[in-house]
Amino acid sequence: MQQSSAVYLSRLKSVFRGGISSYAIYGFAIALFAVLLATAAAVMLSGAPLTFANLLAAQLHNPMLLALDVMPFVFALWGQGVAAMSADESGNASRKKSEHEQSEKLALQAEARRLEQEDALTGLANRAYFLQQLEASLGTAQLNRTRVGVIVLDLDGFSEVNDQFGAANGDRVLKSVARRLSNAVENTGAVLARLGGNSFGLSIGALQSTKALEELAERMQDVLAPPCTLDKLSLNLAASIGGAVYPDNASDSYGLVNAADGAMQHAKASGGGFELVQSAMPIEDAEMHSLSAELRAAIDEDQLVLYLQPLIDIQADEVHGVEALVRWQHPRRGFLPPGEFIPRAERAGLMHDLSKWVLRRALEYNAALRKEGWSIGVSVNLSARSLLDPEFPDLLAALLAEYDVPSEVLTIEITEDTLMSDQRRTMDVVTRVSNMGIHISIDDFGTGYSQLTYLKRLPASEIKIDRSFVTDMLESDTDLAIVKGTIELGHALGLRAVAEGIEYENQSIRLRELGCDIIQGYYMGRPMPFDKLREWLAEWQLHHQARVVAVAEAGGRH
């Protein structure tokens, strides 16, 4: 009873909380008009004249009219109640709408977080989220003085699945592997992820012993043993697995994954199976693992340096462009050439970030040169990982737009071996990149094992003759024939021919005679920082203009 009274009083308060509403005023006015009309009618029916005294007398002597006098107040109260109910309904509707929108927003945020953390193909954790969780586990292990184990698993011969049965069937195999591995590590507390391609990673905190890590690896091998069925085909799966333990083998997430990856590579070279990194690693191996972790910091902290080497149009005697070449100014080890850290970046899964850094800086420099009047191109070498990333063309488009550089300015250099690693996927990405107007260059041409039937379908713009043929072409008839044949083949396919490794003037003269289009090498200019390149371009321009004037004067005398 008390509760119902409280509800009644609460509703009554809400009726008058917002002041007199328009509904109450309209109701009061309508009812008042009706009372006056009824009173006037009563006077007229009595035959008396319509005066204020007669109207008042009719009110006082007619009980029905006295009852009607209450109606304006009743209607005013009714109007106020209607207004209050409308306001409540509107407020409820607004609250429900707000709650619905908030619920949708939270759902979208949750979905965005899931997509950021999840591998789109397999539904496992992705590499970034795996490293994030591993870093958290290492922090806990450091506080509790416990150990953390990491496993890296790589499918053996997976490229053959893609080559023989297509990328779609390759994706089906990866999904099947992901399901099997998930079942193998269920209820173990381990974090399972797809690190990229056909590589999977697993981390487990509070590791009791290396024996427990070995047992997990054996369980993963066992679930891969049954054949994988693709329609009417039956594929046997095998994997190479490497394991590493914190703090024995590394002190951070990148170093630990690199250590496990190194053990996996060693296991693969030894015929597959599982291999655990030993606590007593050779000093040079420990340094390499440390170098991988430092490279991550170098990319984030801008320790890398981009060098640029000129490319010369030998027929027009003009600067055609520059090739971007990354170097590392290490704070302790000094100046490191790419050969000392690019392979480690490949194995550590850092090539995407490294390539993005190089592309960003190359386009930034090119935009600066264009503002100074130099409309030249820029070439960037890319790895197979970039070409297997379906989102890579979108990255290129975003960077070109950011620096307002035309797409035709950029040339992507790809080696033959990279192109042949996964023909179907690389062809798809290369075609999308070419359709954007970006040039494709086949680097180190002649050193790989490419199929001309495949290469002729590539939307390439140029081929680069490897320096190994150019260096001795003046002494070796075989090398000269290869260089000449490659130039002619390129022209027959509508491609520019680029020769690299030019160190002497007589090499450049012979290449001009052979019809080579572009040359590159120490004879024209070494790789140099951006400021040095600007000085080189200024000197080139002065030298070139002086030569043009001299030729013109010589022609005038004749």
Describe this structure in words.
The protein is 58% helix and 17% strand. A hairpin with a 2-residue loop joins strand 4 and strand 5 (233-235). It has 22 helices and 16 strands. The chain starts with a helix and ends with a helix. Helix 2 packs antiparallel against helix 5 (71-117), helix 7 (158-165) runs antiparallel to helix 8 and helix 10 packs across helix 11 (283-301). It has three domains: 2-114, no CATH class; 127-281, Reverse transcriptase/Diguanylate cyclase domain (Alpha-Beta Plaits), CATH 3.30.70; 307-549, Alpha-Beta Barrel (TIM Barrel), CATH 3.20.20.450. Strands 8-9-11-12-13-14-15-16 form an eight-stranded mixed beta barrel, surrounded by five helices. By secondary structure, it is an alpha/beta fold. Mean pLDDT is 79; it is low at 1-5 and 279-287.
Task: Tell me the layout of helices and strands.
Layout: H1 2-17, H2 22-45, H3 52-61, H4 63-68, H5 71-117, H6 127-144, E1 148-155, H7 158-165, H8 167-184, E2 191-196, E3 199-204, H9 210-224, E4 228-230, E5 233-235, E6 239-246, H10 253-269, E7 273-276, H11 283-301, E8 304-313, E9 318-330, E10 334-336, H12 342-348, H13 351-371, E11 377-381, H14 384-387, H15 392-403, E12 410-415, H16 416-421, H17 423-435, E13 439-445, H18 452-455, E14 462-465, H19 467-471, H20 477-492, E15 496-500, H21 505-513, E16 518-520, H22 530-557
Parallel strand pairs: 6-7, 9-11, 11-12, 12-13, 13-14, 14-15, 15-16
Antiparallel strand pairs: 1-3, 1-6, 2-3, 4-5, 8-9, 8-16, 9-10
Helix pairs in contact: 2-3, 2-5, 7-8, 8-9, 10-11, 13-15
Enzyme class: transferase
Organism: Salinisphaera shabanensis E1L3A
EC number: 2.1.1.80
